[in-house]
TrEMBL record:
SUPFAM superfamilies: SMAD/FHA domain
Record InterPro entries: SMAD_FHA_dom_sf
Protein name per the record: FHA domain-containing protein
Taxonomy of the source species: Bacteria, Pseudomonadati, Bacteroidota, Sphingobacteriia, Sphingobacteriales
Amino acid sequence: MAFSLFKRSGEKQPWDVKSLREAILRFIKESLQKIEGGEGGHIKELKLFIASDADDKSIYEGAVYVHDKQLFKNEVQKIADDFAINLPPDWTLDVEFTEQFPADARRMHDLDVAFVMNTRKQVAHNAASFTAYLRILSGEAEKEEYLIKATDPKLNIGRDKKAVTENGSFRLNQLVFPGESRDDSNKYISRQHAHIEWDAESERFMIFADEGGVPPRNKTKIHIAADGKMIKLNSTQIGHPLNEGDQVILGESAVFLYSTVAER
C-alpha cells in the first residue's frame, strides 16, 4: 500500500517537492556510502524506482526533476564527489515509476521509493535477459500481446505479414495488423510502418519509423507516460527510447502500450 505524502508519520507537516527530494537524495547517499574505495568504478547503473499512487505522482515527478533528468543526475554526482566515490564517466541513472519493486531493490522505510546499484557485469546480464510486452489498445492485430526480448532481431510493424520493398525483396512483419480487418484503425497503417530493436549501448528498446510511418497521415507518434508529452517521429534515422507505460500511435488511431510488467 502506498504511503501518503500529505501526512508524515508523527508529524503534521506534509511533504513538499524540496523536502521529498532531500529525503530521496539522503537515501541514495546512504546507499552509495556502502561502496568502499575504488568499487565505485565498477558501478555502471543506478536505478531509482518509485511506486507512488496517482495523488502523489506529481510531487515525486518534481522531486526527481522528471522533465530534466540531467538535473537529478547532477545531484547524485555531487554526492559521489563529496564522498570520493569514483563513479565511471559513463555511469547512468534511471528513474522508473512502477507498480512493484524488483526483489533485489533496497527500499526506503517511509516512502514508496527503492534503489538498485548494478555493476557492468550485472548490467550486461540483465540486458541479455531483458523482456518487454506490447499490448494492443486500439486496432486489430494478430495477437493482443507480443513478448519481445533483448536477444531478438528487430521487430517489424506493419499492415499484413509481408510487403515488397523498393529493391524487390520482401519485408516480413512480426507485429501484424491484417489489411482485411474491419477495424478502421488498420486502414492508416502502412505495410512498412515502424520497427522496434534493442539498443545495446543505452540498454533499452528503441522504436523507429520506417518509410510508411513518416507521412503526416501515417505518422508514428509516442505518448510519453512520464510527462504526457507527444513525440512525433519525423525521420527514419532517429529512433526514440521506449519506457514503461509509453503508448505508440500508428497512423490515426491504432495504439499499443509498451510495458516491462507482465499482466497478472
